[in-house]
Amino acid sequence: MEQYYGTGRRKASVARVFLRPGEGRITVNGKDFQIYFRGILRAVYAMQAFRETGTLGRYDAIITVTGGGPGGQADAIKLGIARALIQANPDYRAALKPKGLLTRDAREVERKKFGLKKARRAPQFSKR
């Protein structure tokens, strides 16, 4: 049985995506995709790679995702699916690259500095 793998990362989330030829069933951490991301609009964009390549419903996706929140997890899944699709067929690269689906979003949370309230927010200044 052939299987394709892609890793996606975003913020603190890491998604491992396994694609197998099938009917389009997508499971995330053992749950159905719709149930796992119930009501999260950004999760719809996680399927963008399937839509751009016209492969929606041709692959079953088994996804394990850890860390971060729902938004970061959805974006990590999006990158993982795109990378796995390129493994399945390198010709999909031409459709995915211009849409930015193969680019890892490197933005991370800036660390808090001592003497400050947050990463950059200083305590309120008091003249007296």
Which terms would index this structure?
128 residues; structural constituent of ribosome; alpha+beta; ribonucleoprotein; Ribsml_uS5_D2-typ_fold_subgr
Compact description:
This protein has 128 residues and is α+β, with helices and mostly antiparallel strands. It is 29% helix and 23% strand.
The residue-averaged pLDDT reads 94
Give the strand order, joined by hyphens, for the main sheet: 1-2-5-3-4
Major sheet details: 5 strands, mixed
Please give the domain count: 1
Structural class: alpha+beta
Q: Roughly how much helix do the residues carry, as a percent range?
A: 25-40%
Distance between the termini: 74 Å
**Low-confidence parts:** none
Order of helices and strands: EEEEHHHEHH
Continuous helix count:
5
Instruction: Write down the overall geometry.
Output: elongated
Total number of strands: 5
Report the CATH architecture.
Answer: 2-Layer Sandwich
Q: Give the C-alpha Rg.
A: 18 Å
CATH fold group: Ribosomal Protein S5, domain 2
Measured by DSSP, the beta-strand proportion falls in: 15-25%
